Amino acid sequence: MDDSEENSEADAVKDTIKSEMDESPKTSRKRSLCIVPQCKTRTVNRIQILLPKELEPYSSQIKIMVIITKCYNNRQNALIESPTGSGKTLALLASACGCVLDYKVKQKNCLKHGSGAIIAELQENNNGHESEVECTCNQMKKLRIYYGTRTHTQISQVIKEYERFSYGHESGENQLKHTILASREHLCINEEVRKSKNLRESCKEACGGCNEALEAYKEVNKAETCNKDDGKKTKMRKCIYRENLAEYEKPGRKPNGFRRNIDRFFDIEDLVYSLKNLHICPYYASKRILYGDADIVFTPFNYLIDPMIRSSASINLENSIVILDEAHNIEDICRNAASFSFKESELRGAILFFNIFLSRIREKFDGTDIGDEQEKILQRVS
């Protein structure tokens, strides 16, 4: 083998990790043209709501907007039933977005904490005496809309309705930005990870999240982590898509620059397509970057109902408008959230991990005097 052949072989090995980045997507998607729709304003319960100019709302839609704005003003909950085809999605979105803009105006015009504080200070100086300025925002936290749907497919339909409003077309503080929270099955673009039997654990390993629990799982499931030919462990390569996202996670970086790379009104397919071209992980981008400045979060029900998923996604429903659209099967979602299933291999992995943890406790207290209660616990779990 001459030098040129050796160099070419070395280059091939060196570029193995980057091979996926050079592949162009099989399908092409056109970026949507952001034509600002003409809208009209309708005031409901002192809340200004923007509606498409050509839309004359049904009586059922007006009732929904009245209920939503009333709940916003009084911090209440509502159970709304409306027949199919009555335009409830549009009414829910319009009224909820109007409430968020009203909230932003109160924050901005606060005489103590917002831009209105400058006017109050000037008036105070002109009068020549100090006066107690009343706070109109109470240092309010960010108000966010969580719009829950039954399936991921319905998210695309809701976003099409949202695109009819001018809320997302505006610029500056009046623009309402959105993001989508979805599972790795829908957002992962790492082909090596997707081929694994356990996508979630493989993703964590590729992103540097390997821990003792994962090692215990791999110890039990050797068939997944070992090469059948030589018995050597095959380590998951680092995810280049996750590493490329780190540049945007640096302190001080704002999501605005990141959003320029994707459609203003994106669904799951748009997000995957746009970020795959940029070689950036859509799953972590939606959670870590786009979620930060999002005013509207579109997500399936289980992200809002299941406490474990909610905690994993860092969702805090405090001071939020939560909408569960078509929630007639919410009981099944709650039942699934309170239930679980596991394989025998997963149970063996849990036992192995527990034994490792127990042995480390014994090593830590070896030769030391521990209390009677602690000794009873160790004997009981042994």
From TrEMBL:
InterPro entries xrefs: DinG/Rad3-like, DNA/RNA_helicase_DEAH_CS, Helic_SF1/SF2_ATP-bd_DinG/Rad3, Helicase-like_DEXD_c2, Helicase_ATP-bd, P-loop_NTPase, RAD3-like_helicase_DEAD
UniProt superkingdom: Eukaryota
Molecular functions (GO terms): ATP binding; DNA binding; DNA helicase activity; hydrolase activity, acting on acid anhydrides, in phosphorus-containing anhydrides
Residue ranges of the region described as Disordered: 1-29
Amino acid composition bias (Basic and acidic residues), ranges on this chain: 11-26
Any Pfam family hit: DEAD_2
One record GO biological process: nucleotide-excision repair
Domain Helicase ATP-binding: 47-373
UniProt keywords, alphabetically: ATP-binding, Hydrolase, Nucleotide-binding
CC per GO annotation: nucleus
Protein name per Swiss-Prot or TrEMBL: Helicase ATP-binding domain-containing protein
Organism: Panagrolaimus davidi
